[in-house]
C-alpha cells in the first residue's frame, strides 16, 4: 500500500483526467457523444485512444504500485467496455453505411442527463482508493 499522500495525489490526478474526458465528450444526446468521439476516431484510432488518458493512467498506477486486484480489474474492465462499445456504435453509425437499426438510433437521439457524464468521477476515484488500500 502506498503512503496516503501518494494515494491522494494519484486519486486527484485521476479526477482531473476524468474531468478532461467528460469535457471533450459532453453532448446533449448519446449520438452527440459518439459524434464528438468520431471526430478523433476518424483521424486515427490511436488518437481516439489517446483521448482517454485516465485509462493509461490506471495502467501506469498498476505498474507503479505493482498492485493488481479486483478493484483495478473492475476499473480496466469498465473503461475497456466503454471504449469498445463506443467504437462499435461509431462504426455502425458513421462507417458501415448506417448499420444500426432504427430502435437503437431512436435511443441514441434521446436526451442525456447531465449527471451521466459525472458517473466516472463518482465511480473510478473510489475504486482506485479501494484498490490502493
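Q: What amino acid sequence fits the structure above?
A:
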Amino acid at each position: 500500500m502506498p503512503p496516503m499522500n501518494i494515494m491522494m495525489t494519484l486519486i486527484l490526478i485521476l479526477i482531473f483526467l476524468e474531468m478532461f474526458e467528460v469535457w471533450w465528450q459532453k453532448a446533449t444526446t448519446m449520438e452527440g457523444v459518439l459524434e464528438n468521439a468520431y471526430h478523433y476516431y476518424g483521424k486515427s484510432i490511436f488518437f481516439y485512444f489517446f483521448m482517454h488518458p485516465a485509462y493509461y493512467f490506471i495502467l501506469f498506477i498498476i505498474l507503479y504500485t505493482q498492485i493488481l486486484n479486483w478493484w483495478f480489474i473492475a476499473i480496466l474492465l469498465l473503461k475497456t467496455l466503454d471504449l469498445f462499445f463506443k467504437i462499435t456504435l461509431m462504426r455502425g453509425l458513421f462507417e458501415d453505411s448506417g448499420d444500426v437499426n432504427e430502435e437503437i438510433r431512436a435511443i441514441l437521439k434521446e436526451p442525456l442527463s447531465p449527471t451521466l457524464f459525472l458517473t466516472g468521477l463518482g465511480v473510478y476515484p473510489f475504486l482506485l482508493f479501494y484498490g490502493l488500500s
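Q: And what stands out in the fold?
A: The chain has a mean pLDDT of 91.
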